[in-house]
Design brief:
The two termini are 15 Å apart. The protein is of the alpha/beta class. The protein is elongated and about 90 Å long. Helices cover 50% and strands 17% of the residues.
Length: 317
Amino acid sequence: MSDFIRYSIVVPVFNEEEVVEESYKRLKKVMDGVNESYEIIFVNDGCRDKTPDIISDICKNDANIKLVNFSRNFGHQIAISAGMDYTNGQAIVIIDADLQDPPEVIPQMIQKWKEGYDVVYGKRIKRKGEGLFKKLTAAMFYRFLKMLTNVVIPVDVGDFRLIDRKVCETIGKIKEQNRFMRGLISWVGFKQYALEYVREERFAGKTKYPLKKMIQFATDAIISFSYKPLKLASLLGFLVSLAGFGYLIYVIYIYFTTNTVSGWASGIVISLFFHGITLIMLGIIGEYIGRIYDESKNRPLYIVRNTVGFKEEKQPD
């Protein structure tokens, strides 16, 4: 049986050698000030720099720090899941290492948890250091997702949050491969509270979510929590068929009432339009089929190479 731990802090890391030591210092200062037992679990999501070495050295000097090393990069959302699997705390805080989400907000989350809230999520009221394009696309994504899904997923909210042990254990029973953690936490319900804060500029290094990853992240979120794109594909198919039938009637009318020979340009345009719509619908259906394929393989979410700082080698259920 593990020693009693009040709070667990889960920190996924990927190539954060420029910031991880500062992240540790600020987290330690905040949690020491809480005056209750805690652990900080860093999850190495296949780092290719010195991040794991830095954390391993910290583990040697601080018994509250632990490290889970993946065998390769499995992705940010999977790293969060793994960290949650390895926690022992009664309340679990999820926070990135880049210090955009300030650790100094954690005591306020803890206070709300003690008041009876099972989930306390950080709601960004301002995003420092981000360009207009990033802010605009993020705002559009959250509102578009809210429109598509029946699950109430708060807007302007990231993964920075505190969850109760029972929420963590409930999430642990969900084995989806393509995970959108903030959506899953909203889906399981429980008593939730929005804690407003100002998101800071990244302390150092580069973002780990370039445009390509953001598009994939948005795709995972939408497909995981909404089947409306499939309904949209069906609606598009019906409308296109209706338009095609209408054009057929028009062609027959022209054939019998005029001697005009239809040009090839209109035929090409219409053909390209209809084929384009068909390919879009097939693409949407393909995304859903791909998710079914991933789930059917029943592979583990992640593979752990080794752990550091745990009293005994721990493997999740």
